[in-house]
Write a structure and sequence with these properties.
Protein arginine N-methyltransferase PRMT10 (chains A, B); methyltransferase (chains A, B); Rossmann fold; globular; Hnrnp arginine n-methyltransferase1; 3 domains; S-adenosyl-L-methionine (chains A, B); 5-stranded parallel β-sheet; 9 helices; homodimer; alpha/beta; 6-stranded antiparallel β-sheet; PRMT_dom (chains A, B)
């Protein structure tokens, strides 16, 4: 055998949970939570200036939401948001963390002399019991393209169980965006796919010649596996704004105070975008998100803060953007209009991963309609 | 949040199973079996000429072991060993595979017109029931440094349940080898570790300056995490024979017909090696394995075949060798003698991964004794 985890050359992520249909806690740990038990990973997030500045400003420019209040931090990780909440004057902060990172968070709380305010609780938010309801729920729950990881489910659960009717959510709102892009990555992936298939055909020939076994029956499933890997898996991207060739559109708008799990189980909609660049290539779509800290209607923020992961020259984030390349690219030009149908569902094998379907119809400024194309993608 | 699986830049493998102390089937699938459900991975193994040739020759140069016999292939994967066994004249072959790869194996069997001989059974060998005992158990169960993956446990279970008293094991014997090596990889890893720590100190300063939180209490656990990752995790290597600077020694010898799980739960021993190169650097140890196809005492092979993963100029394998670098390297020269203590146990977090401890004492040909050093490594 010889599976490849300690061969760094192998970038493939395997996400099957062996067909288990319900969420097994151990499996969920093995596939998901374990990542957050690494300080290395925490450091990556704590070094994300866009992420840090927006939460920092949201808290310290809205101290009235924290002063003498009770706060719940869902998935506190290293404890940074809980510590800031305490520094902003919270009376009590419950910092819940499912992984062993809780021990480091506890040490950090003590080292910063906040042990009288911040209580770190190791456990899943779904399981823990708090002695009181809270005024604020703060959490950094966003995954790639907002919903990957499905962690917002846990925030909703926490909100429904522990937030006072007058309470506020940090962040209070979230949006998913898509926009048409140009990129060389899709071409690269296509050529990677083609070489993988060329290699396969050579492999089939050799196996027949040297070992007397005809492997050609596996060509179709192999090509499907490789298609999924190279052509149907979205890519982490750090897009330059110039790569966005049309207007961006919101495909999902979430009010964190009222959204239910049902509201986010599936994201579906039709949006339109007009090309803003002359004579260019539509290579696919980029997807990103932003979240906002506005407090609540009855208890608004004094300073509204936004955290955006949109393509930016200076302010890139560890989330980057998700790239969904098409094959082949389509020539478009300024004024062309795209009617985009979009649907996102959770992967059957792993509820924290997503499957996305894009449909696109191009109405050229000339009036011609370019036959629409459809593509399915996996966010892994 | 934003964990990194679809960021190919992140090569880190996370292996915690969330502290689950017993082996959870779902977790085991998520962490282990799933890898083998990829045809890409099967192709990697099927393209390993050393692996393929040795099994192919073992079977077809010892047809008397297969002709009109019943065979059990444990972990058949794509089904190649089962198909060869049938082509060598087996009356019946049971090909057991735990993953969905079983479906591809079934298709391959039919495409090669062996459906009357080869029966593919999807399930764990521990769970399946065969209608009869078998004459031969064949399996390619070897992981990095032989025992990683702990798959031999399943072969032992199959043998004790299904092999006739007169039966033979393919392979019949296995050995673990270690040898002193010189390599630049250790220096590289040490400098990677140092840069990671330099980065960390900058991170601690910035977090204090910009965000008012003192992270220095996490410096020790972070450095331990990074030490484990960079300095205590064995590395996949494709060693050139010239990198082996002393005599190789066997640390474990396994008779596949009689070995028990207790025999392989822990591997412990002391071996010696003498340096065979003049004035060189002892940078650590290389570990590899070989297996042999000798049949049994009462029913020996006509042609004994060996599969070795030792350093080689022409015959490298996908297993390569495991590298266990030391810091700092030690100057040694021809005639110096190494007394090496070695122990390998299964990781508490994941029974398919290994923890290794090396101790080494150098008696220089001059008679001087170099203070011994100890190092712990993880095979991940």
């Amino acid at each position: 055998m010889g599976s490849f985890p300690n061969r760094v050359v192998d970038g493939r992520s395997s996400t099957s949970n062996g067909g288990a249909s319900v969420v097994d806690k151990g499996v969920d740990f093995a596939q998901y939570f374990c990542t957050y038990a690494f300080l290395y990973h925490q450091k990556e997030m704590l070094s994300d200036r866009v992420r840090m500045d927006s939460y920092f400003n949201a808290i310290f420019q809205n101290k009235h939401h924290f002063h003498e209040k009770t706060v719940l931090d869902v998935g506190t990780g290293s404890g940074i948001l809980a510590i800031w909440s305490a520094q902003a004057g919270a009376r009590k902060v419950y910092a819940v963390e499912a992984t062993k990172m809780a021990e480091h968070a506890r040490a950090l709380v003590i080292a910063n002399n906040l042990q009288d305010v911040v209580e770190v609780i190791e456990g899943s938010i779904e399981d823990v019991t708090l002695p009181e309801k809270v005024d604020v729920i703060i959490s950094e729950w966003m995954g790639y393209f907002l919903l990957r990881e499905s962690m917002f489910d846990s925030v909703i659960c926490a909100r429904d169980r522990w937030l006072k009717p007058t309470g506020v959510m940090y962040p209070s709102h979230a949006r998913m965006w898509i926009a048409p892009i140009r990129s060389g990555l899709g071409d690269q992936k296509m050529s990677d796919y083609r070489s993988a298939m060329d290699e396969w055909y050579g492999f089939v020939d050799e196996t027949k010649t040297y070992y007397g076994v005809d492997m050609s029956v596996l060509t179709k499933p192999f090509s499907e596996e490789q298609r999924k890997y190279y052509l149907q898996t979205s890519m982490w991207n750090n897009l330059h704004p110039h790569q966005v060739i049309g207007t961006a559109a919101v495909v999902k708008d979430i009010d964190c105070l009222t959204a239910t799990v049902d509201d986010i189980l599936e994201v579906r909609g039709s949006v339109s975008s007009s090309i803003t660049l002359e004579n260019t290539r539509l290579c696919g779509f980029g997807g990103w998100f932003d979240v906002h800290f506005r407090g609540s209607k009855d208890d608004p923020a004094q300073q509204q803060i936004e955290l955006t992961t949109a393509p930016s020259i200076n302010d890139s984030t560890h989330w980057g953007q998700q790239g969904f390349p098409f094959h082949p690219p389509v020539r478009v030009t300024e004024g062309d209009n795209l009617n985009i149908s979009f649907s996102m569902n959770r992967s059957k094998e792993n509820h924290r991963l997503m499957e996305i379907e894009f449909g696109c119809e191009i109405t050229q400024c000339s009036g011609n309609m370019v036959p629409c194309f459809r593509n399915k993608f996996f966010i892994e």
